[in-house]
């Protein structure tokens, strides 16, 4: 019994890592200095019959437990299995929508913090089979492909967050040109369809017949803003807080007492001068 226990203790601890049902575990390490391994859980992407999915069934690898420091290196880590066509990272599994590509490097949603899931599409189905057979551990940061961490990553992220003004201007101008062209096409189409009945005989009514509104001048805009400011100031609550209300009441009572005492003194003075005539 003792020999059996020693034999079990000498076994590689990675062999005892349980994997979710139907998944293969791929150990990864951030660098060679790291002792413990992190595990990616992978399986071939598949859906139930009748479920729609735009991901290629035989060429897509579904990956769970992707850490934040591995998101940019995932394609390189799996490139040994075959040519990677695309890698899509998401907060949670999503079967109905197609892969999302960022339209702009300046206007894009913030990356999802924490662990994510990934859909890795290979050029050939053999890439999925090779990825399921990986033993590892795979190194995320190597000498040829170092991954920044700590303060170096913060500095790099800050530098990337400051956009180039010229590149930003070009992208904004391109977007506005495309937007203006789209609006012009929609207006031209609406003008063509104006007064033309549809298949059921209905005629679409638009606002095109209304008199155009004259644009405001700068002086008129300033007058409107000043009028709005005065209106807001009148609507502001006086003595909003309870302690301010109490203090205003106490101050009002003190003023009334002071005035009462002044009136008493004035009446006494008038009586002494025989000039006090209350009626």
Low-confidence stretches: 1-16
Element pattern in H and E: HEEEHEEHEHHHH
Q: Note the overall shape.
A: elongated
Number of helices: 7
Quaternary state reads: single chain
Instruction: Classify the secondary structure makeup into a structural class.
Output: alpha+beta
Beta-strand residue percentage? 5-15%
User: What's the story with the biggest beta sheet?
Assistant: 6 strands, mixed
Strand order of the main beta sheet, please? 4-5-3-2-1-6
Number of extended strands: 6
Instruction: Name the helicity range.
Output: 25-40%
Mean pLDDT figure: 76
How far apart the termini lie comes to 121 Å
Supply Rg: 38 Å
Describe, in plain words, how this protein is organized in 3D.
The protein has a 6-stranded mixed beta sheet. The protein starts with a helix and ends in a 7-residue tail after the last helix. The model is unreliable at 1-16 (pLDDT under 50). It is elongated, with a radius of gyration of 38 Å. It is built from 7 helices and 6 strands, in the order αβββαββαβαααα. β1 and β2 form a beta hairpin. The protein has helices at 2-9, 74-77, 126-132, 150-161, 165-193, 218-235, 242-272; strands at 24-29, 38-44, 60-66, 84-90, 116-122, 138-139. It is of the alpha+beta class.
């Amino acid at each position: 019994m003792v020999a059996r226990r020693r034999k079990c203790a000498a076994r590689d601890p990675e062999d005892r890592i349980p994997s979710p049902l139907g998944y293969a575990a791929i150990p990864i390490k951030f660098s060679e200095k790291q002792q413990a391994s992190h595990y990616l859980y992978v399986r071939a992407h598949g859906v139930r019959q009748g479920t729609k999915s735009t991901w290629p069934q035989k060429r897509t690898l579904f990956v769970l437990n992707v850490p934040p420091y591995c998101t940019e290196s995932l394609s390189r880590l799996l490139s040994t299995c075959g040519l990677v066509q695309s890698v899509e990272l998401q907060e949670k599994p999503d079967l109905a929508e197609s892969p999302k590509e960022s339209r702009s490097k300046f206007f894009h949603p913030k990356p999802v913090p924490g662990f994510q899931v990934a859909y890795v599409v290979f050029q050939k189905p053999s890439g999925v089979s090779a990825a399921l057979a990986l033993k590892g551990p795979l190194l995320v940061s190597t000498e040829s492909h170092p991954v920044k961490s700590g303060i170096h990553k913060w500095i790099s992220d800050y530098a990337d967050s400051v956009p180039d003004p010229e590149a930003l201007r070009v992208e904004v101008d391109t977007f506005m040109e495309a937007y203006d062209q789209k609006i012009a096409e929609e207006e031209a189409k609406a003008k063509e369809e104006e007064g033309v009945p549809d298949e059921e005989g209905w005629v679409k009514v638009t606002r095109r017949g209304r008199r155009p509104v004259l644009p405001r001048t700068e002086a008129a805009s300033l007058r409107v803003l000043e009028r709005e400011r005065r209106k807001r100031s009148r609507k502001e609550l006086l003595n909003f807080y309870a302690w301010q209300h109490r203090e205003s009441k106490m101050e009002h009572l003190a003023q009334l007492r002071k005035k009462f005492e002044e009136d008493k003194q004035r009446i006494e003075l008038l009586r002494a001068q025989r000039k006090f005539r209350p009626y």
